[in-house]
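Escalated from tier 1: heme C holo job.
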Amino acid sequence: MKISKICLAAIMTVACMVATLVLFENAALSQSAMPTNPTDAGKRVFQRGNCMGCHKWHGNGGGGYGGDALSLRKTQLTREQIIETVSCGRPGTGMPFFVRGSYDSVQCFDMLRKDAGDLMPPEANVFLRPSEIEAVADYVIAHIKGKGEPTYDECIAFFSKGSRVCNVYKAEDHSAGAEQTKKAAQ
Ligand code: HEC
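Tier 2 regenerated the structure:
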């Protein structure tokens, strides 16, 4: 009698452990099966690095505090070149460098700070790790480069929630007024 009680307790314990394990495994599985966009990380870098401060959310650029940023929609640069531009900035322009130590401990375009002289590009407000720079380059290639004019759908996708910023893209094709509002908002 006693023995079977102990047995029962042991069996319950084991069953309980197995059940817990299965639960954990399921949780892990459902987490990894969650649909995630591979360029989400790059989008976060685009926001955190304030690329959008100068290039705008749509990448078409405009007058930012670093001067007129070139259009990333019209860029001809390859992934490698985008990575280099973000890492090292662009000498003689307002495009800042995002890798800590660029032109000091790391040569950029074969230059150190003393070689760059007056052409020394500004230092970004935040430094990015190489993996983050690769992510933002992938984001630019997937969502911005070669995309033509920005659309309402792209705007909503960028800001996720219904953002008033996007209203100017709404009536785009229907009225010249919307086009003007859009120009003013840029
Ligand atoms: C302070 C403003 C500023 C910030 C912040 C900034 N850029 Fe720029 N960027 C510029 C300017 C200005 C240029 C144009 C350089 C030139 O005239 O050649 C440029 C050029 C570029 C180019 C070269 C485009 C081409 O076709 O030659 C790329 C790529 C680029 N930026 C990507 C980025 C990314 C990605 C970020 C964020 C990690 C970023 N930029 C942040 C101002 C900025």
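Residues 2-32 form the longest helix (31 residues).
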